[in-house]
Design a protein that fits this description.
alpha/beta, 22 strands, binds adenosine-5'-triphosphate, binds magnesium ion
């Protein structure tokens, strides 16, 4: 964080200093985990359900924090007292961002691919200047200000993923760190259980472009009608990206190599360039176009951009992470999360890689689908069958409609098996895997990735196994 006196911190968060010298300066980072506290830093104490951060206030001071931001006084601890520590963190982040005129905030949202695209944008902006971006999915009212607070006078770009869990949510996050460039990737049924309908999701995601200033830029996916329609909801300049003919930043002649890595011709107002991505999946075309539009907006020359796109790598784990085992099996670990759209993207990548190889999809439960749950799972099973996936391992009773959807599909030559849990899936794979197979592992977080981990650990299968 930029150095601020405790008086400035208190003013920013509308707080009251207790046992604290207003002239003391915070020179270190803002942390809410006392183990992360560094000398000169500020510790934020949250009144948690299981642990109360205030119990760690004295320890944080011993570790070098100059004060604690919290909701109740603690004996002998210099405090900034507030009513709501989370809101205070947001206000403090805003105060920091407001003090950094050379900082450009880039905000992005979407139903699938926020973290993936955030990582792409941050890799590009890092070539243009010092960049702060969160690790993984830090995209809510805690992760967002926490990340923004890491910006300092040297930072040029702040790249923030914004997750919406309801109306007004993105509007709030935009107040914490107002973006000048906003990117909307797609609108799908992810988290639909909390919103009720896809239109409600679109309404909430569009808040991001509504919050842009008139001199801002809205990068919108031209290929998603609900995202394209957001052009009417902003006073900022709109840059359409995608494969649509009217997209300003566009991909034409898209091809995929044997590992599902796209190549395309990038068409921009500045000219054309050949792009060869090192990332797997057709959906990375759109993600990379959004990142390219941001980089062009920030002044990256086209020839440099084409090379930079080719050099993009995976940053956050378990998102289309493709690895080869020494036994000739290729694994696509996409087990971080799943919804129907991201599962469709992953299944298409699997099918593409499987043109000459046997394909196996290990699919677990898709969370947060609400009343769309059964249909969402069935649709995924049907798609796996339609794409000609050879073998489906559906993990757990909750994911059973995937199995139902697949076996109900007409003319499918493949086989679907419903297994009870992750261990059973690993067992089945151990028995069945053959050199040359391509295996996709996907589900909604937590346990499905144990299957991917087991595949990673078992790089070499013992000879003379059960086959
Ligand atoms: N443009 C896209 N369309 C569909 N799926 C995508 C797209 N980009 C990435 N994905 C897939 O979506 C899944 C989630 O990716 P990612 O973590 O980037 O999304 P997210 O929006 O940040 O998710 P979360 O809401 O959990 O934060 C991964 O399986 C990833 O491969
Ligand atoms: Mg994310």
């Amino acid at each position: 964080m930029i150095p601020l006196t405790l008086a400035e911190v208190a003013a920013a968060v509308d707080g009251r200093l207790v046992a604290a010298d207003p002239n003391t300066r915070v020179t270190g980072p803002v942390e809410f985990d006392s183990r992360e506290v560094r000398p000169g830093g500020l510790f934020v104490a949250f009144p948690g359900e299981k642990v109360d951060g205030h119990d760690y206030a004295a320890g944080a001071i011993s570790s070098g924090a100059v004060a604690v931001l919290g909701t109740r006084a603690v004996a002998r601890v210099p405090m900034v007292l507030v009513d709501d520590a989370l809101a205070a963190m947001g206000s403090l982040a805003r105060a920091v961002v407001d003090r950094l005129p050379a900082l450009t905030v880039i905000g992005l949202t979407g139903s699938s691919g926020k973290t993936s695209t955030k990582d792409l944008i941050a890799q590009l902006t890092a070539r243009l200047g010092p960049t702060v971006a969160p690790p993984g999915s830090f995209n809510n009212e805690l992760g967002h200000p926490y990340t923004a607070l890491q910006a300092d006078a040297g930072t040029r770009y702040l790249v923030l993923e914004k997750g919406a869990r309801g109306p007004g949510h993105l509007r709030y996050l935009c107040q914490v760190a107002p973006p000048r460039i906003a990117v909307v990737i797609n609108v799908g049924v992810a988290h639909i259980g909390e919103f009720g309908s896809v239109d409600a999701i679109a309404a909430a995601k569009g808040e991001l472009v509504e919050e842009l200033p008139p001199d801002g830029v809205a990068v919108l996916n031209a290929d998603d009608p609900r995202v394209r329609a957001m052009a009417a909801r902003t006073t900022a300049r709109v840059v359409l990206v995608g494969e649509a003919v009217d997209a300003e930043v566009r991909a034409v002649d898209v091809t995929l190599d044997e590992r599902g890595r796209p190549s395309y011709t990038l068409v921009t107002p500045a000219g054309r360039a050949a792009v060869r991505l090192g990332l797997t999946g057709r959906h990375q075309v759109g993600n990379s176009l959004a990142a390219a539009a941001v980089a062009l907006e920030l002044g990256m020359p086209l020839d440099e951009l084409a090379g930079a796109l080719g050099a993009l790598g995976l940053v956050s784990t378990r998102r289309m992470d493709v690895f080869d085992r020494t036994d000739g099996v290729t694994v696509i670990d996409d087990s971080y999360n799943a919804n129907p759209a991201s599962t469709a993207a992953a299944l298409r990548a699997l099918a593409g890689m499987g043109r000459t190889r046997r394909t196996i999809a290990v699919l677990g439960y898709l969370a947060e689908l609400g009343e769309f749950e059964r249909d969402g799972h069935e649709e995924v099973g049907r798609l796996a069958a339609d794409l000609g996936v050879d073998r489906l391992l559906v993990v757990g009773e909750s994911a059973a409609p995937i199995h139902d959807g697949a076996v109900a599909a007409a003319n499918w030559g493949g086989v679907s098996v419903l297994v009870t849990d992750q261990e059973a899936a690993v067992e089945a794979l151990r028995r069945e895997l053959l050199p040359g197979d391509v295996v996709l592992v996907k589900g909604s977080r937590y346990r499905t990735w144990e299957v991917a981990d087991a595949l990673r650990a078992e790089a070499v299968r013992t000879e003379g196994g059960s086959r």
